[in-house]
Design brief:
- This protein is mainly alpha-helical.
- The protein is built from 8 helices and no strands.
- It has one domain.
Length: about 220
């Protein structure tokens, strides 16, 4: 998109510093989940840090590649450092992090909510269609975790357990529908983040899964 064209989504109303901090926080939490998965798979320190980077950055990179723009996270060294640092923390303190399993799941849900909304907003800023923007928003949130499981030779957990992809799709849909209806303002991304996070919290609390075919 031409740099002279202003953003079409409400996220341009958010202070860039605040948005950067939130994105880095989400990247760090996702990186922790990737690092912990690598520790459990008995990878070495490079593998742990690499998987932290993959989970922290892959969703946004996949979105940008599908949109056809240079990956945003490659233009800011802080994302790579934060994701790699999260992997290093997972390598150095896996037992301590395991004891924080529920809080990390909650923070992961917050990262999912933030990324699905920013992902959909980025897609709309580059004039992607509504349905495609919803999908790209969800990919931003769940893409890293799916790639993590593929690297570890597992069926992606988002496809077999947990209420994870649905909240991301709903959060992204709120942003896209509001845009299509001409509704603007900071409350649109806040609503998308809040609804996605709430549904994810309900899934965590009640250990909910999507329906499966009968055996």
């Amino acid at each position: 998109m031409d740099a002279r064209v202003p953003p079409v989504t409400p996220l341009h109303e958010v202070d860039p510093t605040i948005l950067l901090v939130l994105n880095l926080a989400g990247t760090f939490v996702f990186g922790l989940s990737g690092g912990l998965a690598a520790v459990r798979a008995r990878l070495d320190i490079f593998g742990v840090m690499a998987l932290g980077v993959v989970v922290g950055l892959a969703g946004g990179i996949t979105r940008d590649v599908l949109i056809g723009i240079p990956p945003q996270t490659f233009r800011d060294w802080r994302y790579l450092v934060v994701a790699g640092g999260a992997g290093l923390v997972a390598f150095l303190a896996p037992r301590w992090l395991d004891r924080l399993g529920r809080p990390i799941l909650i923070l992961d849900g917050a990262g999912l909510a933030l990324f699905c909304v920013t992902g959909a907003s980025t897609a709309l800023d580059h004039h992607v269609g509504g349905l495609e923007a919803v999908v790209l928003g969800a990919i931003t949130g769940i893409g890293g975790g799916m790639l993590r499981d593929i690297i570890l030779r597992e069926i992606p957990i988002v496809l077999r357990a947990g209420l994870y992809a649905i909240p991301a799709l709903i959060g992204a849909s709120i942003v896209v529908v509001a845009y299509k209806l001409g509704i603007h303002g900071l409350m649109v991304p806040v609503a998308g983040i809040g609804v996605c996070f709430l549904i994810r919290l309900i899934g965590i609390h009640y250990d909910l899964d999507m329906p499966r075919p009968p055996e």
